[in-house]
Design a protein that fits this description.
Elements lengths: L1 E4 L7 E4 L33 H23 L5 E3 L1 H11 L5 H10 L10 H12 L6 E9 L7 H11 L4 E2 L4 H15 L17 E10 L2 E3 L7 E6 L5 E19 L4 E8 L3 E8 L7 H6 L2 H10 L1 E10 L1 E8 L1 H9 L1 H4 L13 E12 L3 E3 L16 E3 L4 E7 L5 E7 L6
Parallel strand pairs: 4-5, 6-14, 7-15, 12-16
Antiparallel strand pairs: 1-2, 1-9, 3-18, 4-6, 8-9, 9-10, 9-12, 10-11, 11-17, 13-14, 17-18
Protein name: Pigment epithelium-derived factor
Family: Belongs to the serpin family.
Keywords: Glycoprotein, Secreted, Signal
Length: about 425
Amino acid sequence: MQALILLLWTGAFLGHGSSQNTGGSLEEGSPAPDTTGIPVEEEDPFFKVPVNKLAGAISNFGYDLYRVRSSMSPAANVLMSPLSVATALSALSLGAGQRTESTIHRALYYDLINNANIHSTYKELLATVTAPQKNLDSAFRIMFERKLRIKTSFVSPLEKSYGTRPRFLTGNPHVDLREINNWVQAQTKGKIASSTREMPNGISILLLGVAYFKGQWVTKFDTRKTSLADFHLDEERTVRVPMMSDPKAVLRYGLDSDLNCKIAQLPLTGSMSIIFFLPQKPTQNLTMIEESLTSEFVHDIDRELKTVQAVLTIPKLKLSYEGEVTKSLQEMTLQSLFDSPDFSKITGKPIKLTQVEHRAGFEWNEDGAGTAPSPGGQPARLTFPLDYHLNQPFIFVLRDTDTGALLFIGKILDPRGT
């Protein structure tokens, strides 16, 4: 069993299970173990709430999508907001026949959810994570080939549960690209740059997911303490980047001995938080950490980390991504959507998914709500001075605390940009 360990005067130990299973629990103060030796796995009460269970399912899709994207770009930064892609696929499934609907639902882990009202629950989830205080702009669009006749039986539930209507391409690549850019600008309040990529010909169905986030820390950083410092790309190469610092940061922390990484969580306003996974060595491959990421594991981390005071340094970050995730989805058991799907609930004409586009912007700086340490109990007394320096490649997860939804995920090999 992997061990997530926090070295305190109290001697508390934390554990989690294998990379694809749910996590363990805080051992100190737990009841005596079952003497039969047979582990009894009960569903966490958190995931019994329908909206949280749905968030966990699509988050697992998000971690799957991230892993594929990361493996395709082993030497590059990765930035994704899988929620916007999952939402587009979930909405598209409203128009799918049983065979294709099952394919989409399995990829989204809906087959593990006993929820007859999955789309109405999704509406509740979207309302929660895009509430104004969350500072998250997330939207999607389904676009069809020109002059396609669409059934009202598809449009009505699409509008009811997802608040959108399908759009139609004109067939003119320049006009279509301009309309998409205008829509992206409107959805993100102009924070994501217009695309200059050419629209391909012969599109049948185009899915577009877009997301932008600029969060506020619960405790802001002092801009006077931000300075250029070394970021170690590996053991031999370093770059100078603006690093924010707080010599008395209050954060939540744990050390995972099996993954050989230090984990820290910083709270953001709006019931959001970022969890950082920092390897012990700059040259450590991040794959083991990536393979461990599931909604259950991350939820257990959130539950088990302990509040500590530490010397913290973190790079200022402003990243963006624009491109296709078509090939990634094809690698994830969704190839049939691009070959011979059944979208008979949309139209009587044979159509198929042609392209899936994703645009994302993400940034953090010193901005915060206040100067006092965030609430959450007194920091634990440590047996050693704790430093947490994000000055080498790391992974971060932006998570909605209320639902557990994965909103953004990033692999930062070089904080200067994607």
